[in-house]
Amino acid sequence: MASEACDVCERSVRIAGGIGDLWNFAFESTQGLTLELTDGSEFFLCFDCMERLPDDHEPTAEDVADLRERTDPAEDDGNHFWHWG
Questions:
Q1: 18 or 37, which is more confident?
Q2: Most exposed: 2, 31, 48, 58, by fewest CB within 10 Å?
Q3: How far apart, in whole angstroms, are the C-alpha atoms of residue 84 and residue 31?
Q4: DSSP-based three-state secondary structure for 12
């Protein structure tokens, strides 16, 4: 079971697959993706933050930085993963 922090909200989200899932039979889906933007920048974003990127143009690193400024960091609730609810 692997996780990675979203580059915008800083939540630790689950990345499905990997050797850990073979041993614990976790079949949950991935909760984020690494995006390579047209300006050559690369970010790991949770699906919720991806939805908040502009849809009227191709997102850039500047859009991600703007979104980060408008987003409060996730509070640590003791859970290593958060789930869609």
A1: 37
A2: 58
A3: 8
A4: strand
